[in-house]
């Protein structure tokens, strides 16, 4: 259900993931273009495996290791990921729809060119998240820490940041529509402050960003 924010802006629609009774994943390794339906991956070591182009429908991944896991062009649908961890997970051009990602510990995750729709990212920490040229629609970041996320050239529509930290974000070339940044406890923009049109920020955030905005506009501020 669409939640309407203040000022006529549309709020993000959160996913409603209701998993059926799941069968345990028996191992054997991921396969390119594999089909995984109604499975529970619990504490599975998927590091270095190749699941490019695979489809995950009604799945739960809990406590899984995703170091260097190749999931480019994969489709994650109506699924829940909890406590996953890893460095260099490749989800380039993947599709995430109706997905909950909770308490993840990830670094260098590649999501460039990906499509995220009705996705909730709650808790955890993600370093150097690559979302260049990705499309984010109805995405909520809640209670998480994002260190130097790259949103260059991305399109964000109905995206909310709630009680989370955005450190060194790159918005160069990004397009924002109905993006709510007011809930970001930390908002540090390394690049692309001129792309904030279409976003809403708080008065305090405006004051914090004043030096960056002044520099962008070529304004000299002297006491």
From TrEMBL:
Q: Which SUPFAM superfamilies match?
A: Pentapeptide repeat-like
- Name the domain of life: Bacteria
Q: Which residue stretches does the UniProt record annotate as biased composition, category Basic residues?
A: 1-12
Q: Where is this region: Disordered?
A: 1-30
InterPro entries found in the cross-reference section: 5peptide_repeat, Pentapeptide-BTB/POZ_domain
Q: Name one Pfam family in it.
A: Pentapeptide_4
Question: What is this protein's record name?
Answer: Pentapeptide repeat-containing protein
Which species is listed as the source? Streptomyces thermocarboxydovorans
């Amino acid at each position: 259900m669409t939640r309407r924010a203040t000022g006529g802006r549309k709020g993000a629609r959160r996913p409603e993931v209701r998993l059926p009774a799941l069968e345990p994943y028996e191992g054997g390794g991921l396969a390119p273009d594999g089909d995984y339906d109604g499975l529970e991956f619990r504490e599975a070591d998927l590091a270095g495996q190749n699941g490019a182009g695979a489809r995950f429908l009604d799945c739960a991944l809990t406590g899984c290791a995703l170091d260097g896991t190749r999931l480019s062009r994969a489709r994650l649908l109506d699924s829940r990921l909890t406590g996953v961890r890893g460095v260099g997970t490749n989800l380039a051009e993947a599709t995430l729809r109706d997905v909950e990602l909770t308490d993840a510990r990830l670094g260098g995750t590649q999501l460039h060119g990906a499509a995220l729709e009705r996705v909730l990212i709650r808790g955890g920490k993600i370093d150097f998240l690559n979302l260049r040229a990705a499309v984010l629609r109805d995405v909520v970041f809640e209670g998480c820490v994002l260190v130097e996320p790259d949103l260059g050239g991305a399109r964000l529509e109905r995206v909310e940041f709630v009680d989370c930290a955005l450190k060194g974000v790159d918005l160069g070339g990004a397009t924002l529509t109905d993006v709510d940044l007011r809930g970001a406890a930390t908002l540090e923009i390394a690049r692309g402050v001129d792309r904030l049109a279409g976003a809403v920020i708080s008065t305090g955030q405006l004051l914090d960003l004043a030096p960056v905005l002044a520099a962008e506009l070529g304004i000299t501020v002297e006491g």
